[in-house]
Amino acid sequence: MKILITGTAGFIGFHLAKKLLKQDVDVVGLDNINDYYDVNLKKDRLKDTGIYSTPDDTVVDSKKHPNYRFIKTDLVNSDAVSSLFEAEKFDVVINLAAQAGVRYSLENPQSYMDSNITGFLNILEGCRHQQVKHLIYASSSSVYGTNKEMPFKTTDRVDHPVSLYAASKKSNELMAHTYSHLFGVPTTGLRFFTVYGPWGRPDMALFLFTKAMVEGKPIDVYNFGKMARDFTYIDDIVEGVSRLISKAPSGSKSGEGMDDKPDNSTAPFQLFNIGYGSPVKLMDFISEIEENLGIVAEKNMMEIQPGDVPKTWAYVDDLFELTGFKPQVSVREGVRYFIDWYRDYYGV
Asked: What is the SS3 string spanning the chain?
């Protein structure tokens, strides 16, 4: 099997590539290595998988894994994406490349249209023309927007996004269903819930809080701490994704279309939440960081920011029913693993 993973210089893509490289598959990684956050961290992730040089639009071999190759290119480049798909004949595509971040979408909306809409369209076109057997792509818990009923289910309506990032991810789901319906491309969308862990993104709360506390700076606590998130450890995320590779949808035979639930489409299309399945209060999360660092944080209590929601909580029973997997790593364990990595990586 040959698998394309986009976003392998990113947090989730890096960890997924490492997991799949231990299996009997060929992996091609793709990333544009943009400067949304520290490029050195992205390059160090690549080096960890044996990618030491990244010339533009050129496939390079890993120095550590004979079954891994990488190409630095941008999904917006339709010619490059089309050529890659035609040359490689992928069996499965896992699209994790995106312009991430809710708050940044307020500052730089064009980058979300380019990466998350145009880039995803080019992925869909590649899958369509090269008869890819299964496309798995990253959506987001942010699509639930102002929904109040908990836990969030994929059967819920998601018509009130509160950020352009969320709107772009809902758009991905709609685009995927269209290609599933029109061209028979089997697609699986995954709504990720607050992923954290070693090698994590510097713009996420755990990284921001840890860095500030180590440097003796105060942390910004939004909504005056009255927040809760369904924090999900990275190893649980990639385990769930890997189990779905062989679970391509075939489409409902009931003829009911989308009347009942997203995975009841007559098209080969399905959606899942992928989260721990239990929200943790933000102040409890901060307490875990304080305990592991041995530092009491100075806290700037602030109002909720535009684009944020007070609480997330994933319903994951349907994912368990299909794959037999439930997340295993608690926040207590996961925060400790991150802090250990942070101390080692930054030498503090």
From this structure: CEEEEECCCCHHHHHHHHHHCCCCCEEEEEECCCCCCCHHHHHHHHHHCCCCCCCECCEEECCCCCCEEEEECCCCCHHHHHHHHHHHCCCEEEECCCCCCCHHHHCCHHHHHHHHHHHHHHHHHHHHHCCCCEEEEEEEHHHHCCCCCCCECCCCCCCCCCCHHHHHHHHHHHHHHHHHHHHCCCEEEEEECCEECCCCCCCCHHHHHHHHHHCCCCEEEHHHHCCEECCEEHHHHHHHHHHHCCCCCCCCCCCCCCCCCHHHCCCCEEEEEECCCCCEEHHHHHHHHHHHHCCCCCEEECCCCCCCCCECCECCHHHHHHHCCCCCCCHHHHHHHHHHHHHHHHCC
Given this model, what pLDDT does residue 319 score? 95
* pTM of this structure: 0.95
Chain segment 304-313, per-residue pLDDT in tens: 988 788 999 9
The pLDDT value given to residue 261: 56
- Give yes or no for a contact between 231 and 282, defined as CB atoms under 8 angstroms apart: no
| CA nearest neighbour of 280 among 225, 342, 239, 241 | 225
- Asked if 231 and 276 touch (Cβ cutoff 8 Å), the reply is yes
Q: For the chain, list residues with pLDDT below 50.
A: 257-260
Mark whether 233 is an active-site residue.
Answer: no
pLDDT at residue 228, as a whole number: 97
263-272 pLDDT, tens per residue? 567 899 999 9
107 neighbors 99 (Cβ within 8 angstroms): no
Among 165, 233, 276, 342, the one annotated catalytic: 165
